[in-house]
Amino acid sequence: MSDAGTMTTKTNPLQHVTEQLNELRAKGVAPKLHVLEGEQRPVCVFDGREVINLASNNYLGLTSDKRLRKASIEAVRKYGVGAGAVRTIAGTMKLHMDLEEQIAKFKNVEACVVFQSGFTANAGTVSAVLGKEDLIVSDELNHASIIDGARLSKATIKVFKHKDVQDCERILQEHANFPGKKLIITDGVFSMDGDIAPLPQLCDLAEKYGCIMMVDDAHASGVLGRGGRGTIDHFNCHGRVHIQVGTLSKAIGSMGGYVCGSRDLIDFLYLRARPFLFSTSHPPATAAACQAAFALLDSPEGEKLVKKLWANTKFFKKELKKRGFQFKSSETPIVPIHVGEGAKAFEFSRKLFEAGVFAPAVGYPTVAEGKARLRAIVSAAHKREHLLKAAEVLGEVGIGLGVV
Fold first, then answer.
1. Quick one: 40 and 54 in the same domain?
2. Cα(187)–Cα(202) distance, rounded to whole angstroms?
3. Which one is catalytic: 56, 117, 145, 191?
4. Are strands 257-261 and 243-247 parallel, antiparallel or unpaired?
5. pTM over 0.90
6. Which domain CATH number covers 362?
7. Reported confidence tier of residue 364, pLDDT bands at 50, 70, 90
8. Is 182 labeled as catalytic in the residue annotation?
């Protein structure tokens, strides 16, 4: 009862969340999370159903590799289950320093810093290196972590058309007298279309206009270049890219992100990158698994794994093209199957799942409205019979829905 003797009615301050959620459900674009039972493998069980897995970023099949398992278990026995602090206080273990040195050597750079995720590596680095007086020139399809890092920096942000080097140069020409620092930033491999950035040409522009050059190589790590060294190695742009970002969560099979560059850049990020400063460091098991993964990649067997990944990719794309699918932009194991309308894409994915193939739908805000798609990802661990069966099911379901 209120002072006036009338009943008070409680209101829900989060009612707008419920309303928006109901709208998404009504549109058919609010799928529930699929729950993995067991290991992340080419064929595995989600929600009690065995499916061919085309949903994972596990490019080289390392999530269940026996060498990574062994390294993790030994690290737990020797060092425990957690680091116990942030890196700048008491959480830097020798394992972390050894991993950073190993990655720097692998990537042919002076130094490396490991972050808790690829997202924080991008966001933390951009916002640490640039400020409000600076300029960021960014590809329009760059990852959300780049976009958020750019916003956090408070720098002036200019976006160039996707992979359009001329448009990028137009922006640089218009800002030729910009007083602050300038950064050109791009994904190495774009996660939704599987296409590769025109890195040599962007490096040319960076050198011509005095810009910092930064590449997010998350989907190129373990995929492109010798033994999976990424787009810089793929294009032989060593020494031309000032900041290289990579991930430990995809082809490496574990968890985390990293930034490579000069010794001074890394020492600066130790002091100013907020995710590094304010997040507890990787547990020993994770760091040790990553070390085992890079040791594998830096060996003849690692090169064989990368070649198998590409052989599987070529085979799968060929089988899909036979069945009428088109994906002109894809140059990597990421295979986008464009649908257009969001609800239809999610229906396509649901029917595939019921038929034994897990290829997730991707809609807004991950991609623009009207550009929903399925994203299938091939791995080195897939067998030909898995990929052939998946292509057959995709074709059958796609015909039924009028996608092909």
1. yes
2. 12
3. 191
4. antiparallel
5. yes
6. 3.90.1150.10
7. confident
8. no
